[in-house]
User: Which sequence fits this backbone?
């Protein structure tokens, strides 16, 4: 059996590992033109926090993706691999001066070990005059560590990499029993999918080992400590393809984060980075049969469009994608 996975971000690598587990004798190849530090996944803070806008085909499926993903990351966190894979536990607050609803999260409230209303005293834990707040304990996966860890695990199980851009699903797909499309924003061109839109993000990574808690405020403000440093964010710019650092965005991010925790003014800047979130109103995890030029059917399973929540949810959608691969193969064996 030969499987081809397009994409070496967190979604592609996670799908590859789960496919290798399900089909230990199959040859799994990852086809990608960008790796590790050149992927969107590498930019992410990696906090496990699907936004209320993370939507799958049904509420039940969305919930299952998020629950399966949480269990996947939490099993790594509990294992001796946790520091190698970059998975840890993290607590934090989400505050708002505008509305209580912004501090709630339907996908997380029943899932996380702790998700509760913040007390009056806790609303004063950082500056901002917060009126509403929640406290939660969640997970964090730092892709700076996870992508190399997953790469090494994939190789150790016989996985192969094919470097370069895939121009057409049908031309490339013909070489594989099933092709799994985890190309993130690349799917816009590859699948002519106009529903997929970049949502530009910019973050400042700083060295501030004294920050041990995550803090979210209004206007997409966040302070998220990780393994290497603390991620300060952010912006969400719909349909922007600009991959350059914008100094005005950087200034706004600093002002908002320093306004919450003034000690961050003393932090050394490690780097400032931009990433384009692959946003789709519904994450696309579904099979498709395509016909190539010779009339042969190419089996594809899509797994893309995770927007700002791909690190969080990759293991859940990947598990679902592997189930779809099994269904596609069993349907074709009955023909
Ligand atoms: C500033 C910022 C902060 C974020 N913070 C978080 C967070 O805290 N938590 C969270 O869960 N998510 C976060 N995200 C979102 C997360 O980064 C994305 O959802 C996730 O990285 C998407 O992963 P992916 O594997 O689909 O895409 P990518 O990481 O972009 O990987 C796509 C892969 O496909 C390959 N590819 C594409 N097209 C082709 C082609 N035609 N041929 C060959 N290869 C191709 C690319 O080379 C690449 O290897 C954040 C994003 C940004 C920008």
Assistant:
């Amino acid at each position: 059996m030969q499987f081809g996975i397009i994409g070496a971000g967190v979604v592609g690598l996670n799908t590859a590992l789960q496919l290798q587990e399900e089909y230990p004798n199959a040859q799994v190849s990852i086809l990608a033109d960008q790796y590790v530090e050149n992927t969107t996944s590498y930019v992410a803070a990696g906090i496990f926090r699907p936004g209320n806008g993370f939507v799958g085909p049904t509420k039940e499926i969305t919930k299952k993706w998020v629950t399966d993903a949480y269990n996947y990351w939490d099993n790594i966190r509990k294992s001796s691999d946790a520091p190698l894979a970059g998975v840890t536990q993290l607590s934090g607050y989400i505050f708002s001066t505008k509305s209580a609803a912004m501090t709630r999260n339907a996908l997380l409230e029943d899932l996380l070990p702790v998700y509760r209303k913040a007390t009056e005293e806790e609303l004063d834990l950082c500056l901002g005059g917060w009126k509403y707040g929640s406290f939660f304990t969640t997970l964090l996966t730092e892709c700076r560590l996870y992508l190399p860890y997953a790469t090494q695990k994939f190789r150790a199980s016989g996985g192969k990499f094919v470097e370069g851009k895939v121009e057409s699903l049908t031309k490339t797909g013909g070489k594989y029993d099933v092709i799994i499309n985890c190309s993130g924003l690349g799917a816009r061109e590859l699948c002519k999918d106009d529903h997929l839109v970049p949502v530009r993000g910019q973050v400042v990574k700083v060295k501030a080992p004294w920050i041990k808690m995550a803090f979210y405020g209004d206007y997409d403000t966040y302070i998220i400590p990780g393994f290497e440093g603390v991620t300060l964010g952010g912006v969400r710019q719909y349909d922007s393809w600009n991959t350059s650092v914008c100094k005005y965005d950087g200034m706004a991010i600093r002002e908002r984060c320093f306004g919450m925790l003034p000690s961050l003014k003393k932090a050394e800047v490690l780097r400032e980075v931009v990433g384009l979130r692959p946003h789709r109103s519904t994450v696309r995890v579904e099979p498709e049969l395509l016909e190539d030029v010779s009339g042969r059917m190419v089996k594809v399973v899509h797994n893309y469009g995770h927007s700002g929540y791909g690190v969080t949810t990759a293991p859940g959608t990947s598990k679902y994608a592997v189930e779809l691969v099994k269904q596609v193969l069993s349907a074709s064996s009955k023909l």
Remarks:
- The chain has eight helices and 14 strands.
- The domain at 2-333 is CATH 3.40.50.720 (Rossmann fold).
- The chain has a mean pLDDT of 97.
- The radius of gyration is 20 Å.
